[in-house]
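Last lecture ended with a question: if I hand you only a sequence, what can you say about the shape of the protein? Today we answer it with a concrete record. The protein is Phosphate transporter. Below, first the input exactly as provided, then the predicted structure, then a couple of comments.
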Amino acid sequence: MSTEDQNGKPVNQWKTLDRDLKRIGRLEYGAQHLSRSLVAPGIALAFIGLAGLMAALLMGAGPGQGVVVIGAAIGAYMALNIGANDVANNMGPAVGSKALPMLGALVIAAVCETAGALLAGGDVVKTVATGIVDPFALQDPAKYIWVMMAAALAAALWLNLATWIGAPVSTTHSIVGGVFGAGALAAGFHAIEWSMLGRIAASWVIAPVLGGAIAASFLAVIRRQMLDVEDRIGAARRWVPVWNGIMGGTFGAYILFKGLKHVFPIPLGAACLIGLCFGILCWLVSVPLIKRKSQGLENRKKSVKTLFSLPLIVAAALLSFAHGANDVANAVGPLAAIVHVAEVGSITDSVGLPLWVLLVGAMGISFGLLLFGPRLIKLVGSEITKLNTVRAFCVALSAAITVIVASWLGLPVSSTHIAVGGIFGVGFYREFHAQRRASRPGAIQKGKPVPPEERKRRLLVRRSHILQVAAAWVITVPFSAFLAMAIYYLLTLVA
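The predicted structure:
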């Protein structure tokens, strides 16, 4: 309601009330925003509590029940962080290239990660201490339990911090660092297998460089075959089936050797031979499919790139399946060891993997992906360099081939390092190709002419991410180790 002043102008009698209502409106908006931001952590805490409750019900009242409940909660927390951080490497390129929307990528990854963990996660796993510290040097079962618990919690905390700062890191190296730190404090540095740590340190350089070089080489070949020719559609009909065959053969060998190794172990040579047969089959099937799909397409680079969308989606799904089969052990390996020692009272280098423990790992990875995964998926897929379906296809194919080659050479590489290295590789190749094309005599520049000095400054890869990611990789093992030492010391004081 308003009245008029002495000059006849309307006067608002409710200015104070209006200001108060605006403040209340802003307060309500802030409260709603805060409540939405707390939904994901609330669901994660509920899952951790549910894992502990399930462990308490299944273990029953016994002397080791409390230890197993705490171990189950830590295992669930670890699985959540693996899903939040590590799965981005599989789905990031597909999302960044717009082959998949974010929601579709999350659903596909969650289904494939769960399937890989439950169907191919294995019923027996080697404890994460194997190859890092001699488990029998610990002697005391209680000391061994504290080592496993400290290692898992330290790795989970580091993964949580890395996800928060936006750094994709290796979950395997995180748990290795945790076991190294807690094991060294418990058993002494003489019980540590130093050669394993040396190979891991070497993989910090070998994995990303090898992945980047292979991805860049693939992109250069595809450009020469299909993108930089006059008859692009004709070239695509001839070469896309060949690349689909290479993709099918590579992932056939990859899934057999890495994804299904817990179900029926297959030697690398046999897996590659079966993969070769599967690749030939994929090539034969792709020829008529690509011919039909390419009909009516314009003779443009964009048309060729659309033909790589489906193979890229399949590759991302298979990478997630293999990741779930392999990395579920990083989440629940320490928990399985704790359950075994609590029940039997002895230390072994291999332990059984109960179904409920496997479920904690599988569901935790999926929940972590759905609740916290989009942040790193966006970073990997679009914030390092611009990806399209062809570049993302090269990254996915490079990741599978590099893992196979590294396994053949006996190198403990990280799929995270390989995938991120592949993205940097295609980005640097884009810079090289763009500068070489622009420096050719008579080259036609799109848009406003750019001087050569300015052109050199226009980079296609964000350099800040190189330092951020490389620093996170280097400090993963030592940070997890020192954190595990501190946690182990506190646990022994409490116990």
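Comments.
1. The beta strands are 2-4, 10-12, 124-126, 350-352.
2. The chain has a mean pLDDT of 83.
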